[in-house]
Design the sequence.
C-alpha cells in the first residue's frame, strides 16, 4: 500500500558502493583489463558486456517516467491477462462500471492484485504451459471503483452498505487456470479450479491460538472459525504446493474507540482505532470492536490455501505469528524442515522466520497438511559487525513468561510484536518481501522506507534517519542452513537517486535510469538474479517500476530499469515461468493519488475507454523473439 509519509533523506556511514568499487578495481588489476574481458571472465559474456557494462542483462533500459501508460524495452511485449471485474466464476457478468454490486463482484476478479503465484498443472508438471495462478486482492481504491463517491482515501468512509459489500467482495484472492499457446497466455474459461475468496469466505483457525479465549466472538464461541481475509498483500507457497497469503494492514478495517478496548496492551501495540479506513463497522458489527473486541485478533495471520482443491477450507496458521504480514517465502533447511521468512510491514517493526518442527515429506503431500501448525517462530536481531541472530519466541522461556503477560503460546503469537519488543529485536524500515535465493542460498530483505526514523534511532541494519527511499539487506545463513539461529548480513543496496539523495549505495556503473526508490516485492529468475518491484516512486517524482540486477560477479548491485508502471500504480507480484520466458506482474492501484476519482482519474489504464475507470490488472511480459526475459 502506498504510504504517504514525508521527510528528507539522511546520511549513512555504511559504504557498500565503495566496497564494490574496491572489489571491481581489484578484479580489474587482477585481469589487467576493464570491461569486456573482465566481465566475460566472470560469466557476463562479451556481447552483453558491450551493451550493459558489467551487468549480465542485455535489455535496453526503460527511462524514468511518470505518465499514464506502461513501458517495457523495445524488444518486449505486454499482454493484459486479466483485469479487475473480469469474470472468474461460472455465471459471472462482464464488467460494467454502472452495474457493480456485491453479488456481481463475488464472481469477478477482485481489486488491487498483489501477490502472484504459479502452481503447475497437472501437479508436478514441468512443461510450464499450464498453471493455477493464485492472486491476492489487497485492498480497494473506492474513489476509483465507484462513481460519485468523491476523492481520496476517505472515500471509503463514505461508502453505503451496498458499496461496502462491493468492497468486501473485491478483497481476498482468486485462483485462475491459465494456459500458454505460443507466447500468448489466456485464462481458461470454466476451469474447475477457479475460485474467489473474499472478506466473507469461511476459514478455519489452526495452531496455538485456535480456541484461545482471545479468539472467541459471539459468532464463534469456540474461537476456531472465522469469516474471510483482507488486506492480503504478498504471499508465497509451500514445497507441497499450497498458497500462503498474508494479511497485512488488517487494523484499517475495524472501527471503535481504541482507548476503551478491554485489552489495552494488545490494542495499543496493534494500533486499533488509530486509522480507520473503511466503513464496514457501520454496517457489520464484527468490524466494530466496541461490539466485538476479539474480532481483530482473528486477522493478521498467514492463510494457507490449497489451489488444487476448490472446496478446501482456507486455514489461518497462527503458529507463524500475528502482525502486518507482507510475504511468506520458504527455504528448506538441511534436515528437511521448512523455513518461512516473513516481514512485519510497519515502521520500526521486525523480521521473522518460522521453522517447522518436522521435516516435510516430498513423497506424501497429505502428510504435510498440518506441518505449519508446529514449530518455532523467531525474530531477528541485526548486530554490529554484520551478525544476525534469530531469537526464539517461545512461551515460558524468559522473558515471554506469565509475569510479563504471556500466559501461553497463544498469547505469544497473538501479540508477536510485543514478544519481539521484549526480546529486543531490531526495529526495521518497513520489512516487505523477504525472499531466499535458491541459487546462492542468501536471503534478501526489502525495506521499503521509514521517513519517521530519528537520527538517534538508527541501527547498523537501518543506518539512515528519515529513510524515504529504503534499502535491501542480504543475509547469509550460517553454514548455508536456513534453520541456523545465526548468520551474517550486509546492505546490498541503499535506494534513492545517487547525487541527489543522501546515503545511496549502488554499483558505481548504475545509470541515470537504473536507480530506484522504495523496494517492495522481489523475485529471482532461474539464474538467481534479483528483480525488484517498487511501491511509492512518486516520492522521488518517478513511476514505480521493476529493476533487475546481478547478485554476484562484476554486475552485483547494478540495478537496471526493465519496466515502468502507469501513473499512480505500484508494481507487485513479479513471477517468472520456470523457463524465464514470461514474466507476470500485478499492476496495483493505477490512478491512485491526490485528486484522482472515478470520473477524472489520472489514468484510464489499461482500457483507456472514455468514462471507464482505471483497472488493476495482471500482465504477461514476453520477449518478441521468444527468448528469456532480461537476456
Ligand atoms: Fe502491502 Fe507492504 O505492502
Ligand atoms: Ca508496499
Ligand atoms: Ca507490498
Sequence:
Amino acid at each position: 500500500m502506498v504510504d504517504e509519509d514525508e521527510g528528507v533523506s539522511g546520511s549513512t556511514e555504511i559504504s557498500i558502493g565503495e566496497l564494490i568499487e574496491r572489489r571491481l578495481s581489484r578484479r580489474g588489476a587482477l585481469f589487467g583489463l576493464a570491461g569486456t574481458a573482465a566481465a566475460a571472465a566472470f560469466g557476463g559474456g562479451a556481447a552483453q558486456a558491450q551493451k550493459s557494462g558489467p551487468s549480465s542483462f542485455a535489455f535496453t533500459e526503460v527511462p524514468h517516467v511518470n505518465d499514464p501508460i506502461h513501458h517495457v524495452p523495445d524488444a518486449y511485449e505486454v499482454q493484459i491477462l486479466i483485469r479487475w471485474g473480469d469474470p472468474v466464476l461460472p455465471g459471472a457478468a462482464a464488467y460494467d462500471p454502472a452495474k457493480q454490486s456485491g453479488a456481481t463482484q463475488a464472481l469477478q476478479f477482485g481489486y488491487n492484485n498483489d501477490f502472484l503465484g504459479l502452481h503447475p498443472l497437472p501437479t508436478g508438471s514441468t512443461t510450464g504451459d499450464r498453471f493455477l495462478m493464485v492472486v491476492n486482492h489487497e485492498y480497494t481504491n473506492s474513489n476509483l471503483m465507484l462513481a460519485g463517491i468523491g476523492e481520496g482515501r476517505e472515500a471509503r468512509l463514505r461508502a453505503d452498505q451496498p458499496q461496502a459489500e462491493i468492497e468486501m467482495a473485491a478483497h481476498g484472492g482468486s485462483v485462475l487456470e491459465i494456459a500458454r499457446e505460443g507466447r500468448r497466455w489466456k485464462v481458461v474459461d470454466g476451469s474447475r479450479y477457479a475460485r474467489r475468496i473474499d472478506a466473507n469466505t469461511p476459514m478455519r483457525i489452526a495452531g496455538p491460538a485456535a480456541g484461545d479465549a482471545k479468539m472467541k466472538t459471539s459468532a464463534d464461541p469456540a474461537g476456531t472459525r472465522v469469516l474471510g481475509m483482507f488486506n492480503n498483500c504478498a504471499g508465497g507457497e509451500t514445497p507441497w504446493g499450497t498458497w500462503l497469503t498474508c494479511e497485512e494492514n488488517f487494523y484499517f478495517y475495524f472501527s471503535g474507540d481504541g482507548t476503551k478496548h478491554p485489552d489495552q496492551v494488545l490494542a495499543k501495540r496493534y494500533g486499533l482505532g488509530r486509522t480507520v479506513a473503511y466503513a464496514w463497522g457501520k454496517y457489520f458489527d464484527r468490524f466494530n470492536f466496541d461490539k466485538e473486541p476479539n474480532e481483530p485478533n482473528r486477522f493478521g495471520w498467514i492463510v494457507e490455501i490449497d489451489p488444487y482443491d476448490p472446496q478446501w477450507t482456507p486455514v489461518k496458521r497462527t503458529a507463524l505469528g500475528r502482525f502486518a504480514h507482507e510475504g511468506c517465502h520458504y527455504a528448506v533447511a538441511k534436515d528437511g524442515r521448512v523455513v518461512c521468512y516473513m516481514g512485519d510491514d510497519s515502521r520500526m517493526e521486525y523480521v521473522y522466520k518460522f521453522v517447522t518442527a518436522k521435516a516435510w515429506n516430498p513423497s506424501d503431500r497429505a502428510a504435510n497438511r498440518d506441518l505449519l501448525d508446529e514449530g518455532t517462530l523467531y525474530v531477528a536481531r541485526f548486530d554490529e559487525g554484520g551478525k544476525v541472530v534469530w531469537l526464539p519466541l517461545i512461551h515460558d522461556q524468559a522473558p515471554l513468561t506469565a509475569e510479563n503477560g504471556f500466559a501461553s503460546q497463544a498469547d505469544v503469537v497473538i501479540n508477536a510484536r510485543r514478544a519481539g519488543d521484549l526480546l529486543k529485536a531490531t526495529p526495521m524500515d518497513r520489512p516487505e518481501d523477504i525472499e531466499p535465493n535458491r541459487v546462492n542460498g542468501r536471503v534478501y530483505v526489502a525495506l521499503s522506507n521509514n521517513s519517521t526514523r530519528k537520527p538517534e534511532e538508527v541501527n547498523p541494519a537501518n543506518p539512515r534517519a528519515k529513510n524515504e527511499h529504503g534499502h535491501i539487506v542480504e543475509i547469509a545463513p550460517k553454514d548455508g542452513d536456513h534453520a541456523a539461529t545465526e548468520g551474517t548480513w550486509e546492505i546490498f543496496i541503499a535506494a534513492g537517486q545517487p547525487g541527489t539523495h543522501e546515503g545511496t549505495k549502488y554499483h558505481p556503473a548504475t545509470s541515470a535510469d537504473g536507480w530506484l526508490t522504495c523496494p517492495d516485492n522481489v523475485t529471482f529468475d532461474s539464474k538467481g538474479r534479483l528483480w525488484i518491484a517498487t511501491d511509492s516512486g512518486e516520492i522521488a517524482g518517478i513511476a514505480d517500476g521493476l529493476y533487475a540486477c546481478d547478485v554476484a560477479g562484476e554486475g552485483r548491485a547494478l540495478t537496471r530499469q526493465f519496466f515502468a508502471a502507469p501513473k499512480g500504480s505500484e508494481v507487485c507480484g513479479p513471477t517468472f515461468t520456470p523457463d524465464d520466458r514470461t514474466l507476470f506482474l500485478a499492476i496495483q492501484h493505477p490512478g491512485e493519488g491526490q485528486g484522482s476519482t472515478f470520473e477524472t482519474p489520472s489514468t484510464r489504464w489499461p482500457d483507456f475507454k472514455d468514462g471507464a475507470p482505471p483497472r488493476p490488472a495482471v500482465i504477461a511480459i514476453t520477449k518478441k523473439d521468444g527468448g528469456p526475459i532480461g537476456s
